[in-house]
Specification:
With about 280 residues, the chain is α/β, with parallel strands linked by helices. The strands form two sheets. Strands 3-2-1-4-7-8-9 form a seven-stranded mixed beta sheet, sandwiched between helices. It has a five-stranded antiparallel beta sheet with strand order 6-5-10-11-12. The mean pLDDT is about 95.
Amino acid sequence: MNKIKKVYIMTDLEGVAGVLDFENWCSPSSRYYELAKEFLTMEVNSCIEGLFEAGVEEITVLDGHGPGGINVKLLDPRVKLQRGWPRKFADFFIDSSYDAVVWVGQHAKAGSEYAHLPHTQSFKYIDLSVNGVSIGEFGQAAMCASELGIRAIFGSGDNAFTIEAKNLVPGIETVAVKWGLTSGKGDECTYEEYAKRNIGAIHLHPEKARELIKSGAFRAVKRAEKEDFGIIPLKPPFERIAIFRPDAQNPTKTISIETHPESVIELFNLPFNPRPFE
């Protein structure tokens, strides 16, 4: 296998150890928002340390949390930071010059059992699937990366996310930093109900989480240079099915189905066209 020299780190906030709920931690109006950003940034720095120690030469970090999740002042100065999305979500954020992509602070997809703060883009989704495979934010990015030949080699977040990642990308190195306590999928919930549903969790201490992330990132690089993993087999044509929860404006479930004959990236670029779910 080739050396892993250039790596892209995708980040989110809800999968970080010590980020306890959405209301108090994950938005600019939250009481502990700045502390949550610090926790994420320190986890990212630990990942960076592990990657560099394993021989990586260049790293770009994407601040992928909606209102922002990285404390720029605390971020390792050796890396580049990207903030802001491309013209479309799946124009994707990286090109084939990268050898691998990793995730820090990732949460599980909507409907995940025993997950902490699971959702897909927002709490609006019941499920999102491509060719019958249920995916979340991780899966969308990992599929796009696979189309470009970029390997998904590492991810940290809640335990339900690590299960999701291993099921989609066999061989991927993962680190769990917290464990959700809520059983069931919650498909019966409205948007408002689901946003408050999956709050209970057991967390590692942030310092312990960082130790595990550093060593996990290091292992991922070393394994990827010897083992063949990290690419999701993709077989066109592609069909995307999204099922959305009812909310205050839309009292019933809706469904949106789109197809593309060749590209999963272009499939994700297609707009949604929701209609009543039957």
